Amino acid sequence: GTFTIRPATDADTPGILALWQAAFGQPLDPRLWDWKYRGPLGAHITLAVAPNGAVAAAFPTVPVPARIDGTPAQIELAMDSASHPAFRETLSGRTGLFVRTARAHMDAARQRGTRCLYGFPGPRHLRLGELLLGYVPCAAQPVFLTGRPSAPPAPGITLTPVPLNADLSWV
Fold first, then answer.
1. Phi, psi at residue 3, to the nearest 5°?
2. d(Cα 81, Cα 100) in Å, to the nearest integer?
């Protein structure tokens, strides 16, 4: 069948949560979804929707204000990308359904004026992203957090707190 790639609407939330369950094998509390994607920064979510209405793939990002070379810029944090196991073989490889969804999202982000999409993929997804989507390192810089973490970092991880008004121009 023909899949439709389009921006998500609030009415898609149940389908996205069903996708999450299928892709990750566990439910996602709708309150957590709302906290992540209906917060003050908003969200941009691109979906691939099957002819039967099922959400087959999702590429969500949250816009983040930043400074690049000292100039205000819009960047987006990509997280919770998923593809439904039942549709992973549909149009696989470089023209696969998930790849098409991600590319559509990236094209829309460029049109919005987004300067950079970034995320924290695991090793397998990083390799796939490099191969299929052109992932490149944003910077060989340390990551800084604002405020204080609620739990100690994992062994071997050092967190450097910075003030909330810090100029993160290294981004």
1. -100, 145
2. 13
Q: Which residue, 72, 71, 94, 77, is CA-closest to 42? A: 77
Q: What are the CA-CA distances from residue 97 to residues 72, 89, 104 (Å)?
A: 34, 8, 11
| Residues 84 and 56 sit within 8 Å (Cβ to Cβ) | yes
CA atoms within 13 A on the CB side of 132: 18
What does DSSP say about strands 55-68 and 116-118: parallel, antiparallel, or unpaired? unpaired
The Cα 99–Cα 101 span in angstroms is: 5
Tokens of 124: 């397998």
For 5, the enclosing helix (H) or strand (E) is strand 4-7
Q: Residue 122: how many CB atoms within 10 A of its CB? A: 8
CA distance 52 to 64: 34
pTM over 0.90? The answer is no
Model confidence pLDDT, tens digit, residues 47-103: 999 999 999 999 999 998 888 777 888 889 999 999 999 887 655 566 688 889 999
- Here the tokens at position 159 are 């967190």
- Helices 30-37 and 13-24, packing angle to 10 deg: 110
118-159 per-position pLDDT tens digit? 888 888 888 888 888 888 876 554 444 444 445 555 555 555
